[in-house]
Amino acid sequence: MADPDSPTGGGEENAVSTDFIPSLNSNLPKPFDRRLRLRSDPVKPHKQDPVERLKNFDEVSQALTLREAILEAGRCLQCEHHPCTFGCPAHNDIPAALWLLEQGDIKGAAMKFMETSNLPDVCGRLCPQEKQCEGSCVVGTYSLPIAIGKLEKFCVDITREKLGGYPRPPLAPTIGTRVAVVGSGPAGLAVAEELVKRGHGVTIFEAWPRPGGLLIYGIPGFKLNKHLVWDKIQYLQELGIEFRCNTHIGKELSVDALLRDHGFDAVFLGHGASSGNRMKIPGEDLKNAYNATEYLVRGNLPDELLPAEMHGRPHVGQRTVVVGGGDTAMDCVRTARRLCPEGEVWCVYRRSEAEMPGRMEERINAREEGVKFEWLTLPVKFFGDEEGRVKACECIRMRLGAPDAKGRRTPVPIEGSNFVLECDTAVIAIGYSVDDEIAATTENLKKTKWGSIWVNTEEEGQTSREEIWAAGDCVRGADLIVTAMAPARKAARSIDRTLRAKLPASGKIPKL
Question: Among candidates 111, 222, 125, which has minimal Cα distance to 160?
Fold first, then answer.
């Protein structure tokens, strides 16, 4: 008899036993008795103990057991209008996936998620479900919404680890076309997978020493296990996708050179928004004052994954101040707590908690881990010691004024409210902009007024150049994993249609 309280329910190493499911299902409400389903208790997610998790960089969120996953899936009302599906930017068929899981078909549920998502195990961990699928869940009107993200993660993790790995899709015959993909983050990986399945040769160019982009060099291990990303990359390599790392497109090699000199028929830009915003205040360039990316990669990754100039841990101080209120700021404060559990870490944000753009779950985790918050506070100057190392920041209190264009109330300084917050490490995490190197070095590539890459529509993703497409953060600005992946899938379909339309009967398309 399988152990229903283990994550997989027991069974052989490469299989998941579901022996107990019939008896378990006999205790579930009838499939379409929605009133009984609404009375079912939600399953409480598991997390590492806050004290213990400060000693490691392992994922904080822990797996559900098979029993818990099936019981939680059994709370789904199977709504005919599927509001959760429309709340998901990838439009996952969530009710169908949860129905399969409820019946014990874990792999079938995982494959249902994979029909519309290239990174379901990543999205299950990182998407702000409370604002998307779970925020649209009808059950949430009466109780806690279905834990859709945790169930998505569960299905795909078990399939990858115990049920034979990612299912290999049928590949279309190779048609002789080649596409260069710039960036190996969520958008790049998604478009590459979709193109190779359609018969196109794909090469991904990545500026960092290893592939993975944001998933490796932006997301800490306590939120996303790096082995999950390596497994995905290995799977894509097995499909025939080539990765070329340490290659900075727009700097060492231009987009035009890829098309003109290297035999590519199209280029997809998925290089993201990697240029960290600056506060432009005195003292921002002092020693031990970091931008968020440098602090995160040096704090979370070993030297062998980093360029030589980023080797070594960042300065580990006894009092760290992180400026910002988004998910990146939460990544920084939580990293700082792990680097120095005995020290103090402050998050300084110019608005109130209600206006913070990041996930509530991340703020809860940060509080549990001992992070302190200074709301309605803005640094105006950093002070250095005689050796040029940051030692304090001068801050000013703020009040909330009229709403801005996005509906958030604008912070207004309170005259005479300045105070000094001592610190020996500072991290600036106030958002990202699109690096302009690619646009500046690519002839006739149009940008928006915000500096992002212009595309005709998100449904097509075609730029002002007919042989160049783009999607993800380099188009939208810094956003979510799923909002990079979803339009990249659409761009792949557009690239495929365009290249096939130019394909003569003889095979290879003529050069543009």
Answer: 111
- Distance linking the first and last C-alpha atoms of the chain: 63
Type and span of the H or E element at 39: helix 34-39
Alpha-carbon Rg for the chain, nearest whole angstrom, is 24
> Residue 17: is its pLDDT beyond 50?
no
Q: Give me 370's structure tokens.
A: 């001992």
Q: What residue ranges define each of the domains in the chain, with the CATH number in brackets?
A: 21-162 (1.10.1060.10), 178-274+435-501 (3.50.50.60), 278-430 (3.50.50.60)
Q: pLDDT tens for residues 329-340?
A: 999 999 999 999
Do residues 358 and 327 make contact, with C-beta atoms less than 8 angstroms apart? yes
Question: Which spans in 58-179 are helix H?
Answer: 66-73, 83-87, 94-102, 106-114, 120-126, 148-162
Q: At residue 481, what is the residue type?
A: I
Helix, strand, or coil (residue 483): helix
Longest dimension (CA), the chain: 76
Mean pLDDT of 292-303: 97
Provide mean pLDDT across the span 114-122: 97
Q: Which of 431, 451, 424, 389 is nearest to 293 (CA)?
A: 431
pLDDT at 2: 43
- How far from the centroid of its chain's Cα atoms is residue 23's Cα? 38
Task: Give the integer Cα–Cα distance in Å for 275 and 432.
Answer: 5
